[in-house]
Amino acid sequence: MPEIGYKLCSEECGPNDLVKYARMAEERGFTFGLISDHFHPWVDAQGQSPFVWSVIGAIAHATTRLRVGTGVTCPTVRIHPAIVAQAAATAAAMMPGRFFLGLGAGENLNEHIVGGRWPEAPVRHERLEEAIEVIQLLFQGGVQSHHGKHFTVEKARLYTLPDEPPPIVVAAGGRKSAELAARKTDGMVGTSPNAGLLGHFDGAGGRGKPRYGEVTVCWAESEAAARRTARERWPISAMDSTVLWELPLPRHFEGVAELVTEDATAEVITCGPDPARHVQAIQTYVDAGYTHVFVHQVGPEQEGFMRFYEREVLPQLGRARKAAA
Question: Is 146 an active-site residue?
Fold first, then answer.
């Protein structure tokens, strides 16, 4: 069985709550967390979007064991990769051995705010690959320069570095990004139990590297309440992925959400208080080949969700892990 982690959802939680939930996740038995890096929430009902690096700094001092990664940061438009490298190095220095850097090609929703043109997908992936090279270069220490197609770095040095550079993982939604993750980084992040995607990752050199899979659930006292919350807070789960990359504002997602039914949302989000369904949702990712699965609880019931997982779900997964050993 994989390690089980917790999604620190910046679109739904304010900064102080994220710190509280990180500490609580550690206490309840989750071993790692991924924290989203957004400028906007997807829809206004989510209601939050704090600056991720400030929150990570606070989490570093509020926890002692929890490993934390960005899930994920786009280092190509809104923030220059040299600045991402500095932020990640500082985070890793604050929590030695407990921080990893998750990167992705981004969404127009968060990146258009600086007035740059939102490029088409092949260019986004080209920029991401070069950004990874810039970050890895600066992680080496010393004075470094880079003059590439998309980014320039002139005589830059990261003075605050951890003893070991933090691992880098890349979000993969298709073959090209999975192969990029395998070739250039230490692991991948996925949001669907797609064994074929992991096959592309393995085939390009990813075999033996960690694979982080995000499972979205909505725990509540009743399935009906969970379904309502899932539809209100996370209608994007039932939207085509190309919509997620291209639309620029929450109100545009809200327009698409009018076409998303409660049934459609419940088909992709595990809703309700039945522990067997939650275990099965995680098992689907295990069967696909993920080594780490992190659980995104939709809505305000974060504390109830964690109590439920500590009492009903994590013990079942632990017993399954022992039986498989």
Answer: no
